[in-house]
Amino acid sequence: MLHTRLTLLLITSLVCCFSTANESLKTVKLAAEDNWAPFAKASGTGVSHSLINQAFSTVGIKVDSIVVPYSRAVVMAKEGLVDGVFNLVKEQSTESEFIFGKQPLFSATASFYHKVSTPVKAKDKWQLPSNTKVGIIRGYEYGDELKQLPNIKLITLSNHNQLINLLLLDRIDVAIMYDLVAKQYITQMGVSQEIEQIFTNHTGQVYLAFSKLNPHASKLAELLDRGLTRLKDDGSYQEIMASAGSLARN
């Protein structure tokens, strides 16, 4: 009788644990950045939202996103306050801190930009003049080579509007921006004739990265991979990514 009771207790415990795990995988709580149009906007919309929401929807998971500045989003994921963070570039500085799936959301190329009337004379990023002031966004990833560049002084700013304004005011010499994002903000600010792209910084693989403090992180990454594959198979992924270019032109 005692053995039977213990067996029933064990089965009940396992069922409860299984149910709790299933419940925890019905909704994923994510931190989305607020200043990376057309991929992630302050309104909680954008290409990344569409990809992530639809991919998880195909595997029966609802997405609950909070929109915050990118640097805060990264910290929230590191501390386990959310299950994952939008648009994190996989590189040496992030691989050890987050759980990544096999599939990136997309790849994105970042370039150096300067003011047309005060150009920087260099053929590539390795030949920038001594003490070149380079504007970047706080918390963003810009490739493993950035720390190795000679002759630069990094100026960290909060958002793209600040970055572009300081470039226009000659407070920085160049800015690094992801190309589709740069096109979006330069067009919105009406300064397409004043700022131009000069050369590439890097191309990064952009992921939804999961918190190592979430016990279900690896499973969520696997489910996202499955959802992205389904979107690619039915053509939805290609349609969403095609909209990125058209949004940047609008």
Automatic annotation (TrEMBL):
Protein origin, superkingdom: Bacteria
Pfam families listed in its UniProt record: SBP_bac_3
Keywords from the named record: Signal
SUPFAM superfamilies, sorted: Periplasmic binding protein-like II
Signal sequence, renumbered to the chain: 1-21
Keyword Lipoprotein set for record: no
InterPro entries to which the protein is assigned, alphabetical: Solute-binding_3/MltF_N
Family: Belongs to the bacterial solute-binding protein 3 family.
PANTHER family: ABC TRANSPORTER SUBSTRATE-BINDING PROTEIN, MEMBRANE-BOUND LYTIC MUREIN TRANSGLYCOSYLASE F
Name of the protein this chain belongs to: Transporter substrate-binding domain-containing protein
